Amino acid sequence: MSLFDRLFERNGKKLKSEDRRRLLRSTVAAGLFTGLAMLGFIPVVRRWRERLRPPGALVEHEFLAACIKCGQCVQVCPVKAIHLADIDEGYGIGTPYIDARKQGCDFSCDAVQCVLACPTGALSHDISTKDQVRMGVARLAGPDRCLARQGRGFKGVARADDSTILHRYMSVNRWKPIELAEHPYDLELCDLCVRECPIEGAITLEKLTGEPDDKRKTPVVHQSCVGCGFCETICPAQPAAIVVDARAVWPGQHGA
């Protein structure tokens, strides 16, 4: 007797057609439930996507355990950089993340309001050092696309392709971020990633060669970078020449 035939037997007697249909529905439902559960587990195990978490996020497995997906961090972000993950995140659904290309964190809130708003400590309240708010590390991913390395300037609106990006310009209003479209540039040599980095000294421009007539320069990322992502946000190249590796750490430091 086949396994299929045995499945539809009860105490040695053939099940009636209605019973067979009921059992089949239950079997299919159980299979779907198990499959959906695995869909939630697989992204965590295989880490298909490293998310850029808000400042102060605990190490990933601790963050996922501590975050209650309340959205308080989303509500207080002055530049609307924080979003809640969709269903494709599996067990990470509903957790906060930042898409640096669309809107990086520029610390417009000064006191890191997302950390203060977190009720569980998933975003650590112990932010006495930059290492404790590190979100990742920036790197020059596309040197051939970098305008500074080409010796080119920049004129116009940074990221004209997305006018909804917000940024706090200290010279305009310390407390109120404005759209990039309201602040055009006229730069002899593009230095937007350096100029608008909220962490002083995290990125510098350094000469590409020793030739005195060569005005080309290259962005250099330093250890003070916290991976906020705003350099990736404001880079006028498409795709961005400089990006942030989420959850990356500076060489020699412990992982996040």
How would you characterize this protein structure?
With 256 residues, the chain is of the alpha+beta class. The N and C termini lie far apart (56 Å). It folds into two domains: 3-35; 60-246, no CATH class. It has seven helices and twelve strands. A hairpin with a 2-residue loop joins strand 1 (9-10) and strand 2 (13-14). The strands form six sheets. A two-stranded antiparallel sheet has the order 1-2. The protein has a two-stranded antiparallel ribbon with strand order 3-4. The chain has a two-stranded antiparallel ribbon with strand order 5-12.
Notable traits:
alpha+beta; elongated; two-stranded antiparallel sheet; 256 residues; two-stranded antiparallel ribbon
Low-confidence stretches: 40-47
Shape category: elongated
User: What count of structural domains?
Assistant: 2
Distance N to C terminus = 56 Å
Mean pLDDT: 84
Level of helix content? 10-25%
Q: Give the percentage of residues in beta strands.
A: 15-25%
Q: Can you list the strand order of the major beta sheet?
A: 1-2
- Structural class call reads alpha+beta
Task: Name the helix and strand elements from N-terminus to C-terminus, one letter apiece.
Answer: HEEHHHEEHEEEEEHEEHE
Q: How many alpha or pi helices?
A: 7
